[in-house]
Every structure is written in structure tokens, then in C-alpha cells.
Amino acid sequence: MFKINDNYLKLPGSYLFSTIGKKVAAYTAANPDKEVIKLGIGDVTLPLAPAVIKRLHSAVDEMAVKETFKGYAPDLGYEFLRTTIVENDYKARGCDIAADEIFVSDGAKSDSGNIGDIFAVDNKIAVCDPVYPVYVDTNAMAGRTGVYNPETEKWSDVIYMPCTKENNFVPELPKEEPDIIYLCFPNNPTGTTITKDQLQVWVDYALKIGAVIIYDAAYEAYISTENIPHSIYECEGAKGCAIELRSFSKNAGFTGTRLGFTVIPKELKCGDVMLHSLWARRHGTKFNGAPYIIQAAGAAVYTDEGKKETKEQIAYYMNNAKIIRDGLTGAGYEVYGGVDAPYIWLKTPDKMTSWEFFDYLLENLNIVGTPGSGFGPSGEGYFRLTAFGSLENTKKAMERIKAGKA
Amino acid sequence: MFKINDNYLKLPGSYLFSTIGKKVAAYTAANPDKEVIKLGIGDVTLPLAPAVIKRLHSAVDEMAVKETFKGYAPDLGYEFLRTTIVENDYKARGCDIAADEIFVSDGAKSDSGNIGDIFAVDNKIAVCDPVYPVYVDTNAMAGRTGVYNPETEKWSDVIYMPCTKENNFVPELPKEEPDIIYLCFPNNPTGTTITKDQLQVWVDYALKIGAVIIYDAAYEAYISTENIPHSIYECEGAKGCAIELRSFSKNAGFTGTRLGFTVIPKELKCGDVMLHSLWARRHGTKFNGAPYIIQAAGAAVYTDEGKKETKEQIAYYMNNAKIIRDGLTGAGYEVYGGVDAPYIWLKTPDKMTSWEFFDYLLENLNIVGTPGSGFGPSGEGYFRLTAFGSLENTKKAMERIKAGKA
What we know:
The structure is a homodimer. By secondary structure, the first copy, chain A, is of the alpha/beta class. Chain A has 2 domains: 7-46 and 307-403, Aspartate Aminotransferase, domain 1 (Alpha-Beta Complex), CATH 3.90.1150; 52-304, Type I PLP-dependent aspartate aminotransferase-like (Major domain) (Aspartate Aminotransferase, domain 2). In chain A, a hairpin with a 5-residue loop joins β13 and β14. Chain A has 12 helices and 17 strands. At the A-B interface, α3, α5, α6, α8 and α9 of A face α3, α5, α6, α8 and α9 of B. Chains A, B: Pyridoxal 5'-phosphate binds at residues 72, 108-109, 132, 188, 219, 247-249, 258, 288. Chains A, B: Involved in the synthesis of meso-diaminopimelate (m-DAP or DL-DAP), required for both lysine and peptidoglycan biosynthesis. Catalyzes the direct conversion of tetrahydrodipicolinate to LL-diaminopimelate.
């Protein structure tokens, strides 16, 4: 008789966005005349850039003709894309990463979920709290997280590193030694960042204790402040301890187009085994390459036209972020993030819980956001708004915040 | 100190296609005037069908405009595609599969590799021998296969089911009881099939012993013979014991476009846990949907135009298959497969090993194929040719076979 992976049964339900959906639907049904503005969504809304569209069309045309048709892609990604990534994202920033250390994939969610495959079950993971749920859930599926306690909303074998206003949302080195450390900067959900010096502390720590850092840099394109690292490889020694995850989802609007990559430097080793070899084997065995037309479109993001157009999109979202920051600050809220990231993280007023504030915003101002507690216990008392709405709706939402009513 | 997944270190190198590549490169370098014909490749060569190209272009146009732009896809696939699949691939064949039992993915390789995630490590797997290597390798990565013996080329904890001319390439029920049974029909690499009655025996057996069948039907579009099942759900009771994997790679030339799906009926359970729920959780946590434009193109395969055009492509390949079968038979070879599948499996002549025959074909006839032993020990003494070349090259290769020289 076959047996299932029991670890799946230990997972708590993932009810955050479905609960939000149900509450919004109920409110809308009861108040059909109210215009609800959604600033909870973590998905882009602007269409793909013209340079990307143009390349998608020309790549489709290549697939229509025998002479230029492309069958199976190289498992690890087309050379043209890997080279372009290395030149633009790494060499241009002084990071010595080689094209064959880039593994092209269908996105950072898959990579951040699958990367656990190459590690033993008995590794202790450390995560920020609040956190993107995929890191923890996928480790739970692998049996790496112990027992879940619904009271504390924590797993027994996970090291949680609180990120609150008290530590400026930068985690402190944990007391207990982890084996695998997940870091995401600019951060989802808090929208805050880490300086190069602060990140260097983590790299030094990982090298000292023999831990590996899984560094999620999916939001690096939103960085505007000097001295905020775009890549962990800007830190000395990082090639010996860090894996970096990147995405085209937020820098070029590829959430529905799917493209990302993982960087594993060859000098990152366990004994004399390169993690690079293990991931190459995993990628080559359980994945068959991202579609040619999507990889071609990804390379178009790095053309002069593509860079200009995607920068404009980011500027559009970051203008929304500024409007939200200014609007909330003007209305007396404590506001974090939103400078180098498309997320604004605010402290709920009057000691409201995250969900109480959700209900207040929905019912009184007709604005939808995301309760901070949905991202982990230390998110309680915080709330996330995103800059991915339209300019018009963002402005309208801030007028409601100012007026204290819809 | 972090620890790696040691199971990866037990994997033997996957040298089949790289050894072939090296041998061909060496021969070509030494004989630059010779025209080498490649019939080893398992990849399609015809361009995408016009109906697919047309839909790709229109979907790209949708992504260019704010009003029709698509962000994150539904985790489990767009409703329009899931419904189309169900109508055409299942209801039309009398299989009662629901749209929400279809999980759209980026291909059957990913799915056949990832499906192991939802099962416990201590399940015993059974595979055909010869076999598509992904089934075994991904189970080895999960620690499910025991120790590899390089002498026998077998894992200690895997049940191998020989498929040779003696059993007409249909495996016999194993003596030792497996928990998970991998079956692929029409088969890669042997190109042979199984009748509905023969498959019913497997379904009945799985139901009796409480095993789950992972049924890879990636080549079902090549079936022309009556009474060969296109889906395992044509067998009675299969919804209680079988997961089916499908692909757009070979029926519509999507090898470089990437689209597939897995079917998990809700009545397939372990105790009271639906495998459907586990896979939904896995898919939703470690995957972010196939690209919208690719899913739209996938639906175009099922339009009248799309069906007509992809049928013509399959007819083109199957005409090649007939030419190869006839050519080989006429030259006195023992030939199998190639009737309901794009693969032709032949017995090497004069007791040559698979690799000896490879060298003979390359050096004397300048034809490249794939040694059967590369797919497992019972493939020794067999050889695979594929129908995916051009008509011209296929004919030319058979002229060389007939003449016994290039």
C-alpha cells in the first residue's frame, strides 16, 4: 500500500488571501454602491513593455519557421540570456559571476521552493518574521520544520528572526546556529532594506558558522538609495556562502509570463561537493528549460529600449509608493518601506490588530490591504499596502485616508 | 554547518547523450566530408502549427494592453484550458474527469519528477526496463531507491520489470509488491503499446494491492490502432489508483514552448487523504502557473484548425516511422514499435551490443541513433531510431540501410 508524504498534513491552511477575498466579497455584496480600492495585491498591473512585446512577437515568428524553430532549450538556460544577465546584473556591479553560474528558470517561487531539494532533511532553517510563506511551507513539506503550534503560529524546529520597528526591520544574528538562512531584501512584506555593511555581517556570520544564505533579491530593481546592495555578491566572501534568487516578475512585469534565475557560484561547497553540481543535476532532471520565446523576451529587458521602458514602469509604481507614504504620514501613521520597494508597511493605529485594521479600512474607507499578521506572528500590529495599483486609485485611496472616510 | 542531500551523490552520471555527442563530434572531425544523419533525437523538428502561432501572437497582444494584461495565472491553470482539455481528451473518450482534476504545468518532465514530493520516502517503486531515466533518477534523489550497483546498473530497492521481445514489451506483474508503479504507453524508448485489456490487468492489480500507477501518456496522440487506450481512465476503476501525465511536447511540438498537465482524480486516496489535495498544495506552493500566452496557445491546439494542423504534423512523423520500419524490415532487421509511437526499436543484428551497433551505424552508414542499453539493462541488444527527422533524411538513411553503406 502506497504511503503519502505525511509532512503535508502538518501544514496549516493558507487562508490569508482567501479570507481577504471572502471578506471583500461579503462587503461588496452588502454594499454594491461602494467603490472598493484594492491595494493589497502583490501583482503588477502595467502591461509588458513595448520592447518585450516586440521580441515576443519576433520570437513567435521564429517558432513558425522550420529553419528558426526551437525544440528543447538547454536545461540551464540559453547562453544568450545567461551572458546578458551576467553582464548587466553582475559584472556591471563588480560581481564576478560567470554565465555558467546562472540557472534560468520559470520564476523565483519555483526556485525558492525547489532549492531545498539539494539539502539534507536535517538542516535547521532560519527565517525572518514576518516572511514570504513559501520558504517555510516548502521546508515543512520536506520535513525540516518539526511540529506546528497553532497557538504561537510557529514551527518547533524553525529559527524565527523578528523584524520589527525596534530593530529597523533588519534581523539580528540568531542565538541558535542555523544551517540555512533565508534573507529577502528589499523585503516582502515590510518593504524595508539592508545596507551593504549590514548584509556583510550576515555573510561573515554564514562563513564563520558554515551556513548557506538563500538570498531572495526579487525586488532589487526598486532600489534607489545608495549603498543598498542589489546583489549579495557585492559583499566580500558571499560567493562562498550564498545562493541568490532573481525574478523578472517585478522588474519587468513578468508575473504572468514566468521567468527567473538562480545564481550558484562554483566556490559554494559542502566539503568538496559543489552545490552548483547538485542544482545542475536537479534542474536537468526535474525541469526542461523555460520557453524559448520567454527567454528571448527576458533578454529584451536588457536592451537599451527595454531598460528605459521597464525603468519607467518601476518609476510609475514608486511614484504610487511615495503618494502612499506621504498620504499615510500626513494622516499621522507610522510608515515604513516604500522607498526601495513597492511595499508600504504601516503600524496599525490605536493598538488595533492587523485584522481589526483590515476591517476598519474595508468598512470605513473601502480600501483593501493585507494584514501583517498573515506573514508571521511578528507582523501582528502591522499592515501592508502595495504600490501596484493605478495612479488614480492610489491617489483616491489617500484622499480617503486624509478624510478619514470613503 | 549545512548538509547536502547525500542521495544526489549516489546517482550515476547521465552520460548517454553526452557520450553520443562526443562520438559523433569525433567522427565528424575525422571525416569532415561525410554527411551524418541524426535519427537519435527525441525532439520535434517541425515548426509550431499556424493556429498555435496565431494564438501566440494574439495572446502577446493582450499582454501589451492594460485592459487585457494578465498577471499571476491561477496556480492550477486557466479555466479555459482545463475545460478544453477535459472536453477533448477525456469526456470525448467517455472518461469522467472534471476540469478541477486537471493541473496545468510546464511539462511532463517536471511533473514526472515532482510528483514524488507527495509520497513518503518509504514507498517501493516499480519501473519498466528499459525506461525514461527521469522516473528512477528523481526517486533516487528522494532516497527511495537504495544503493546503486554499477555492475548490474540497478538500484537495490527498485523493482525492474523487463520489457523485451519475449513479453512483447508489456511488463508482467511483478513478484514483489510495489507501492508506486510507473507505466508509459505508448512507450519511450520501445515505441510499443499496451491494449486496453492489458492495461486493465494493471489497474485491477494496483487496486488490489493498494498501489498507485503513474501513467505517462505523453505519446498518446501517435496512437492509430483500435483498442489501444489513449488514457488510463478508459480502464474501469482507474480513477481510484492512477495519476496520468500528459504533454503538449510531442502532440503539438511544444518541446521548446513548455506545457503539460497532470490528472489526479479526487477519488484517488490514501486513507481519507486525497492525493488531489496534496498535489494542489504542492503546485500552489512551489509553482506559479504556466505563462498565460503558452496556456492560450495550448487551448488553440484543440480548435478545429489546431487539431487539423497538429494531426498533419503527426502524420508527417508517422510516415517517417513507416519508412524506417519498412526500410529496416526489408533489410532483414527485427523491428518493433513505430506504429503507435514515433520511436522504432530494433534488435541489433549478429549479437552486437547496443554500443557496437551504434559505432557500426555511425562509421559505416553515417547514421546516429540511440543505444538501447542507455535506457536500462534490458535495453542491451536493442537500438532506438526516431521519426522526428525530415522526410528527406529519413529516406536517405533507409537507402543507406538497404545498401549497407553510406
